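Marked as duplicate of an earlier ticket. Keeping the data here for the record.
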Amino acid sequence: MTSRYLIMFLILAITLELLDLIFRGYTAVKSWDILRSVIYGKDFVAIFVLQYGLGNLVPFILFLLPGLTVRRAVAGTLLVLFGVFMMRWNVVIGGQAFSASFAGFMHYHLPIIPHDLETFKEGLFGALAVGSVPFVLFWFLSRIFPVFGSDERH
C-alpha cells in the first residue's frame, strides 16, 4: 500500500517538474536562452538521464510492475532518493553554473583529496561531515533521552 503513495508522489513530482520546464519554455523569460543551453547541453546527462530517468522513471516502472517484492521496493526507494539527490545537485550546482549577469558559465569540481582547509570544507570530506552530523546528534541525544524502551525490570 505504501508503494502506491510513492507512485502518487512520483507522478506529482514529475508533473510539477515538467510543467515548470514547459512554462519556462513557453514564457521564454530572459534567462531561458542560458537555461536551455544548460539543460540541453552542459547538464543533459545529470538532468534527463540521472534525475528523470534513473531517479524517477525507473522507480516508477519498478513500483508499477505487479508482485512487488521487498528487493524491488528497496531498489526503487534508493533510486528515488538518488533522484532527489540529483535534483538538489542540479538546483544547487547547476544554479551556480551561470552568473546572474548571464556573462558565462562556471565549472564546479568536487575536491576529493583536500590540500587546504577550504577544499576540505567544500569537498567530499566536508559533505561527509555534514551528512554524518544528524547521526552523531541522534546518538548523543539517545544517550541522554532513551529512544527505545528498556527491558530492565526492577
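See parent ticket for discussion. The chain is about 70% helix and 0% strand.
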